[in-house]
Design goal:
This protein has about 140 residues and is an all-alpha fold. The protein has one domain. The chain is built from five helices and no strands. Helix 1 packs antiparallel against helix 2, helix 1 packs parallel to helix 3 and helix 2 runs antiparallel to helix 3. The longest helix is centred in the last third of the chain and has 32 residues. The two termini are about 30 Å apart.
Length: about 140
């Protein structure tokens, strides 16, 4: 299970690196995107290996920074004062879709910390007293 998650994350990060390199067009932009992707993948690997949820949350935050940086480079490319081409229209559509992924990366850590502190916002129902008695655990 962990190998599959890591493989999917690695492929996703590779696509982000390729997108950033395509529109960033400088060595500095490529290095920034590469470092953010490496940090996201390393944090996720360490979090899954050690069972540390804080590392996984850090991975989400690095992923959010990676998406935000790539979106910024894409929008900079799209809004250059040149002729509008099909490439730029696809860039706008891609940036719009990436905003949704960015929202996911930003919301996940916020949702995790909020749900941990407030049981009234929990997505799953609290166990009933009969379930607690059967499992002999503290509820």
């Amino acid at each position: 299970m962990q190998t599959g998650r890591l493989a999917i994350s690695a492929v996703s990060l590779f696509v982000m690196i390729a997108a950033g390199a395509a529109v960033g067009r400088t060595v500095l932009s490529f290095v920034i995107i590469l470092l953010l992707a490496a940090a996201a993948l390393a944090s996720q690997y360490l979090g899954m290996t050690w069972g540390d949820t804080d590392r996984v949350v850090h991975s989400w935050l690095f992923g959010a920074a990676l998406y935000a940086t790539t979106i910024a480079y894409m929008l900079r490319y799209v809004f250059q004062p040149e002729v509008m081409t099909a490439d730029k229209l696809f860039g706008v559509a891609s940036a719009y879709l990436m905003l949704g992924a960015l929202w996911m990366f930003v919301y996940a850590p916020v949702g995790t910390t909020t749900l941990a502190r407030s049981p009234s916002l929990a997505l799953l129902p609290r166990p009933s007293r009969s379930t607690c008695a059967i499992s002999a655990s503290r509820c």
